[in-house]
Amino acid sequence: MAGGKTLVLDLECQEGSPVGLRISGDFFFHPEEGLERLESFLVEIKAWDLDGAEDRIAKFMQENGFRSVGFAPSDLAYLVRGLRC
Amino acid sequence: MLRKRWRVLRYEEGNAAFNMALDEAIADAVAFRVAGPTMRFYGWRPAAVSIGRFQKLEEVVDLEGCQRLGVDIVRRSTGGGAVFHDQEVTYSVICPDDMMPADINEAYREIGGWIVNALKFLGIEATFEPINDVLVDGKKISGSAQSRRKGIFVQHGTILYDIDHAKMFSVLKVPQDKLDAHSIGEPVERVTSVREQKKVPWEYVAAAMTNAFIMNREWYAGDITTDELTRANIIAKGRYGNRDWTFER
Fold this sequence. Notes:
The structure holds 2 protein chains of 2 kinds. By secondary structure, chain A is α+β, with helices and mostly antiparallel strands. Chain A has one domain (7-80): Enolase-like, domain 1, CATH 3.30.390. Chain A contains 3 helices and 4 strands, in the order βββααβα. Chain A has a two-stranded antiparallel sheet. Chain A is globular. The mean pLDDT of chain A is 92. Chain B is of the alpha/beta class. In chain B, strands 1, 2, 3, 7, 8, 9, 10, 11 and 12 form a 9-stranded mixed sheet that branches. In chain B, strands 5-4-6 form a 3-stranded mixed sheet, covered by helices on one side.
């Protein structure tokens, strides 16, 4: 990412379908416990197939008071787009 | 903002799980208002690698190298990257979050300024580099990680006193994309230490940090309470010393 932080997405698949998503790296996320909720949200909305994922991610984070440092919703949307099992 | 008195704890060394657990126990005590804002300075025995809350352990740590060299491993509750704690001074700043800038980046800059001042006391010119680093001649000498929970601000970080490069890079794995991002060929070229910059005794570093951190602040020399110590031991056992937590990602 710009600024030197690393952001990695791992898609968990079962029988060819995505069932989970893991976000890892040396970024910061506040509160830390919120990252798992963001991961679940991305799976719930099938972010990899979604146009306008960036806005959905930004809105979700804002509504829940989540803040990321080292990556932006646009970075996450860019990486998640087109992820396939 | 500066009206609250800081409790300044004397330098102590502990193992990795205890060190992280004590920060959390102090944060709990501050949250329950049984302790005031606290600054802590500490070291790591045995040497340890701490990894960020969201890092994949096996991607950033050489587990075999750690085992061979007797280096502990702990997952922090804060984000950020992997750090090798050996010859350094680590600090924690723990306080109600209204004592720090609300903006995360500004808070990094604030405490980054304290670290720059500490290095200045040692005759080393350093600069704060967003997000969370302090650099000397473009090389990292200090890094920090911040958390805010239950209205409590916690930031911990280090100043490198000396580096055993061979040992450091026997226990840390540096991803290639990280090197590319910093336009540097070898990891060893990315870090520096107080000793590389100035031949001063270790005690000077701890003193310079303390002086820079308490500058223009009300403070007193305090102790860890029995309750904090007891809670830290429980947290160390249940979380930071727990393999499930360490291998969480």
